[in-house]
């Protein structure tokens, strides 16, 4: 760790931290312990030697770049973003905005094939790049979730992975593009910092699902917040995946794991592209803490909920709200009110 320094955005503290990096080719029992530790400490870690083929990644990245390079009116043909499609600056349903444009997909193959018709002149090529990428990252997500169950000494090691293997799984895939914002203009005395400052591309939030697998091109911008007001920059590594614990995994581990708060800033000079797979349960899945993590010392923290209920709550709130607070068993009136702010 190095000394904290001021962040250009609202004087927040920035801290350089060596975030956990886990080599998946190491012995299994070692890997599962390291993953559990990373999920407890940060809800966030990087995996290398992950087994997702470079060709699968490159095809997806090329298709993504080709789409975002189109004109605005061509891209808007693939919109609106809700529930799935192209979105620009608007995030979600409640007025959140960011310097990002994106494509949102349901991970169902038929739905991807249908969407691809408005996205590409070669829809079959686009669709197969997306489906192959999703197939590969879903396998990796299941492998990580089985390692997590082993590390937690849960006898049923597919307790998490079967939720996203289920044909009804409500998983989501997202392609994000954060355009650079350097316009070759000189800074003026009235706006001395607009020349070379970062802007919020995707505001701070936690991911609602079980586990997110995120990768980006070689441009930084992702940050995590292990504590209120403290931000840790995440170095870019196009060869690796960054893994985020989502709200559902926090609830199912009874708060032993934390869903990581994160955000993405734009870069002044280089455009950033990221791709995120959000492994989610079926709508009717009932989500509750595993018996192994509920003890007299660690009593049940969250009421059981279905994914449909949680998703509905999520969509009624703002991007940065702490939705799990609404399901806290000891949730007081004050906590409920503060989670809405
Ligand atoms: C404001 C919102 C956008 C979001 C749904 C939400 O109501 C709150 C969570 C947001 C998020 C974050 C992770 C993923 O990018 C996403 C697709 C998801 O499932 O939850 C987005 C949602 C979105 O952009 O629609
Ligand atoms: O682009 C990124 O690195 C983060 C994107 C993100 O957090 C999201 O899509 O939920
Ligand atoms: Fe996210």
UniProtKB/TrEMBL annotation:
<dbReference type="InterPro" id="IPR027443">
    <property type="entry name" value="IPNS-like_sf"/>
</dbReference>
<keyword id="KW-0223">Dioxygenase</keyword>
<dbReference type="InterPro" id="IPR005123">
    <property type="entry name" value="Oxoglu/Fe-dep_dioxygenase_dom"/>
</dbReference>
<keyword id="KW-0408">Iron</keyword>
<dbReference type="InterPro" id="IPR044861">
    <property type="entry name" value="IPNS-like_FE2OG_OXY"/>
</dbReference>
<feature type="domain" description="Fe2OG dioxygenase">
    <location>
        <begin position="168"/>
        <end position="281"/>
    </location>
</feature>
<dbReference type="InterPro" id="IPR050231">
    <property type="entry name" value="Iron_ascorbate_oxido_reductase"/>
</dbReference>
<comment type="similarity">
    <text>Belongs to the iron/ascorbate-dependent oxidoreductase family. GA2OX subfamily.</text>
</comment>
<keyword id="KW-0560">Oxidoreductase</keyword>
<dbReference type="InterPro" id="IPR026992">
    <property type="entry name" value="DIOX_N"/>
</dbReference>
<dbReference type="GO" id="GO:0045543">
    <property type="term" value="F:gibberellin 2-beta-dioxygenase activity"/>
</dbReference>
<protein>
    <recommendedName>
        <fullName>gibberellin 2beta-dioxygenase</fullName>
        <ecNumber>1.14.11.13</ecNumber>
    </recommendedName>
</protein>
<keyword id="KW-0479">Metal-binding</keyword>
<dbReference type="Pfam" id="PF03171">
    <property type="entry name" value="2OG-FeII_Oxy"/>
</dbReference>
<dbReference type="GO" id="GO:0046872">
    <property type="term" value="F:metal ion binding"/>
</dbReference>
<dbReference type="GO" id="GO:0009685">
    <property type="term" value="P:gibberellin metabolic process"/>
</dbReference>
<comment type="pathway">
    <text>Plant hormone biosynthesis; gibberellin biosynthesis.</text>
</comment>
<comment type="pathway">
    <text>Hormone biosynthesis.</text>
</comment>
<dbReference type="Pfam" id="PF14226">
    <property type="entry name" value="DIOX_N"/>
</dbReference>
